[in-house]
Design goal:
With 505 residues, the chain is an alpha/beta fold. The chain folds into 3 domains: 4-19 and 30-152, Rossmann fold (3-Layer(aba) Sandwich), CATH 3.40.50.980; 190-397, ANL, N-terminal domain (Rossmann fold, 3-Layer(aba) Sandwich); 401-497, GMP Synthetase, Chain A, domain 3, CATH 3.30.300.30. It is 31% helix and 25% strand. The protein is built from 16 helices and 25 strands. Strands 2-1-10-9-11-12-13-14-15 form a 9-stranded mixed sheet. The N and C termini lie far apart (57 Å). The structure holds methylmalonyl-coenzyme A and adenosine monophosphate.
Length: 505
């Protein structure tokens, strides 16, 4: 096969005039229109000198055109690098420079802010707006609507997704065609997707969940996608009647349950609800079943590995667990210090091996070696336990990570900014329970001797360089941070102390 990912997901739909994307207003983009659009994009990039293996960074709103850029990159062999639309210019600057992006696509509203970023790293900056307009779309319109697909192998890179770490510096996870393909072949079969499905899609398309899980599965199966720009409760409730399946982060489910219009009647025709990216409380799972009669299927994945485990389609979907390893994926629970496997039932580090596991971090061989063992097992940083029936539960994290509404936030990145503020001696950033987002960010500050901290000014100062979803919801000041005898800050103690802060607000 000359280009396994393109041929399997996209090429199979060539010439089909069946609906692929259906928008909230009922308008439809057929498979063929979509593929013609992406072929034009592939031509334009190629005309600009972008070559197979080059990185194309995009920070654009969700639209059929945005999704066609993904197909164009696969068809022409570029590495697709989608970026959260909430990232500030400072944040984009790091990704563009680190990846060596040849092109950056952004919304016209962002082009002034990103022009210096593009200039600094020698990337070409063009615009693509939410309504499909922009300099990129205009030029692409003049291109031929067919493009000779570039040969690729399963080991070639298809995408970079940036994910942070304990140092606060983001790492580009290199995902191959084979990583993406193997995972969506497995999931499509496991979750029984077919051309008769209509997937309610309100997730962003710059992360694994919305792009490599939801979109790839629908493409492979030939399902229709009800393609919403974002999660909007009213629109979700309105379109549910036309859907057969839905995927979401736990916040989607708690918001649906919080609305009296979400009833058993509304979901009676649905065949599957999938949840992931953050822990789904067992309580939400049970409440959902009581309300609708459906048991949410929870699965577990990571940017570096795509999906690792899933509750069964047939059989018991056990609340509070993420199910079994997917076919072809191996999971082991190990002792964090020695790396040795632990007996069944014990809590330890979750390690994963399989065709889904990424190739490594872009230009970071040491980081790659720290997390990806020579024998192919990836150390996830999640703590888990396997019960006597084989179900995996995630019981905690061995990494300092906050997940807010499905978005990952690395405390170190925020602590570095807080520590640099006038009068701040040190800081600790923790995740605390939040009724809507699951967890939210709390910043704890210690002032230098005699300094009086201006919390509003500090908030404003750090705000400029951090995406909104990472902003601490609140800052508090303590005389000192709790430490153990080794001098390590006891975040567990802080989390315990502040655990109710947002729950009864
Ligand atoms: C928006 N805001 C947030 C978040 N989202 N704050 C904290 N956490 C968030 N997740 C802020 C905005 O900056 C804004 O601030 C205010 O909340 C409302 O903004 P709005 O856009 O209206 O937000 P929303 O529509 O309420 O969005 C919440 C959301 C969204 C629907 C939960 O965040 C979302 O779609 N999350 C999904 C993330 C996802 O796809 N994760 C998968 C990662 P202000 O009012 O101050 O302006 S992939 C992954 O994790 C792995 C591989 C896996 O297993 O899937
Ligand atoms: P990301 O870096 O965005 O790929 O996020 C991956 C992390 O999300 C994992 O390491 C887990 O900590 C978390 N995660 C994903 N799915 C689940 C789930 N179903 N339950 C609990 N945590 C999850």
């Amino acid at each position: 096969m000359p280009n396994p990912l393109y041929d399997t997901l996209f090429g199979q739909h060539k010439g089909k005039t069946t609906p692929f994307l259906q928008m909230a207003d009922g308008s439809v983009v057929t498979h063929d229109t979509y593929l013609q659009m992406s072929a034009q994009y592939a031509h334009l990039f190629t005309e600009w000198g972008v070559r197979p293996g080059d990185r194309v960074a995009v920070q654009i709103e969700k639209s059929p055109q945005a999704l066609a850029v993904y197909a164009a990159c696969v068809q022409a062999g570029f590495v697709f690098l989608p970026l959260n639309t909430a990232y500030t210019a400072d944040e984009v600057s790091y990704f563009a420079e680190n990846s060596g992006a040849r092109v950056i696509l952004c919304d016209a509203k962002r082009s002034d802010a990103l022009a210096p970023v593009a200039a600094a790293c020698g990337a070409r900056l063009e615009t693509l707006n939410a309504d499909g307009s922009g300099s990129f779309a205009m030029q692409a319109d003049k291109m031929p609507a067919a493009f000779p697909t570039v040969d690729r192998s399963v080991d070639d890179l298809a995408a970079f997704l940036y994910t942070s770490g304990t140092t606060g510096r983001s790492k580009g996870a290199m995902l191959t065609q084979g990583n993406l393909l193997s995972n969506c072949l497995t999931l499509t079969e496991e979750w029984r997707f077919t051309a008769d499905d209509a997937l309610l899609h309100a997730l962003p398309i710059f992360h694994t969940h919305g792009l490599f899980v939801a979109t790839n599965i629908a493409l492979l199966a030939g399902s229709k996608i009800l393609f919403l720009p974002r999660f909007d409760l009213d629109v979700m409730l309105e379109l549910m009647a036309q859907a057969t399946t839905m995927m979401g982060v736990p916040t989607f489910y708690t918001r649906l349950l919080g609305d009296a219009r979400f009833t058993k009647q509304l979901t009676r025709h649905m065949r599957l609800f999938v949840s992931g990216s953050a822990p789904l409380l067992a309580e939400t799972h049970l409440q959902f079943e009581e309300r609708t009669g459906h048991r949410i299927l929870e699965r577990y994945g990571m940017t570096e590995t795509n999906m690792n485990t899933s509750n069964p389609y047939d059989g018991e979907r056990r609340a509070g667990t993420v199910g079994f390893p997917l076919p072809g994926v191996e999971i082991k629970i190990t002792d964090s210090r020695t790396g040795e496997s632990l007996p069944q039932g014990e809590i330890g580090e979750i390690e994963v091996r399989g065709p889904n596991v990424f190739k490594g971090y872009w230009q970071m061989p040491e980081k790659t070696a720290e997390e990806l063992r020579e024998n192919g097992f990836f150390i996830t940083g999640d703590l888990g336990q396997i019960d006597e029936d084989g179900y995996l539960s995630i019981v905690g994290r061995n990494k300092d990570l906050i997940i807010s509404g499905g978005y990952n936030i690395y405390p170190k990145e925020i602590e570095l900014l807080l520590d640099a503020q006038p009068g701040v001696l040190e800081s600790a950033v923790i995740g605390v329970p939040h009724p809507d987002f699951g967890e939210t960010v709390l910043g704890i500050l210690v002032a230098e001797r005699q300094a009086i901290l201006d919390l509003d000014a500090i908030k404003a100062n750090i705000g400029g360089s951090l995406a909104k979803f990472k902003h601490p919801q609140r800052l508090v000041v303590l005389p000192e941070l709790p430490r153990n005898t080794m001098g390590k800050v006891q975040k567990k103690e802080l989390r315990e102390h502040y655990k109710d802060m947002f729950l009864h607000a």
